[in-house]
Amino acid sequence: MKYLKLLLIIAFTLVLLFAASDLPYRGNPDNQMNQEVSMTGTEVPGNYYIQEAYNDAHTPNIVTVILGDYRSIDTLGEQIVIFTAGLIVFLLLRNRKEEEGEDNDK
User: Does 17 score more than 80 pLDDT?
Assistant: First the structure.
């Protein structure tokens, strides 16, 4: 069983390295993310966010504008998931402590 786990980890690492080998270099100015216009002829959203963030929200922090204004529904969904996971962990740990206290009383 131990060798199977090790084999799975090695296989997963090889798949990740293979997938990452096809990624473009980040600093290449010809990358799609650095273009003003996408392949479909529309403006790339990242350029709009950078150029118009302050004009749209009048907030000097671009990260706050992107997360709070442009992607607010997506961010709210992520926050709900994190809150729910934290609540579940809290409830699980609380129940375990109560059960341990009952076992000590017997």
Answer: yes
